[in-house]
Amino acid sequence: MKYDIIIPYYNNAELTKACIESVINNSRNYRIIASSDGSTSDQIKAIGTALE
């Protein structure tokens, strides 16, 4: 079974990256969908880097 994990975030790149890393380290067969709610472009870039 494949899971979609949706992670909403707003200008808290460190906490969001920790959440993404936790999903990566503890899950199999997943797709992460990170959704910004008006974050600054620097925050969005940091999350994009964590997802790569």
TrEMBL record:
- Which Pfam families does the annotation name? Glycos_transf_2
Q: Which InterPro entries match?
A: Glyco_trans_2-like, Nucleotide-diphossugar_trans
The Glycosyltransferase 2-like domain extends over 5-47
Q: What is this protein called?
A: Glycosyltransferase 2-like domain-containing protein
> Where does this protein come from, organism-wise?
marine sediment metagenome
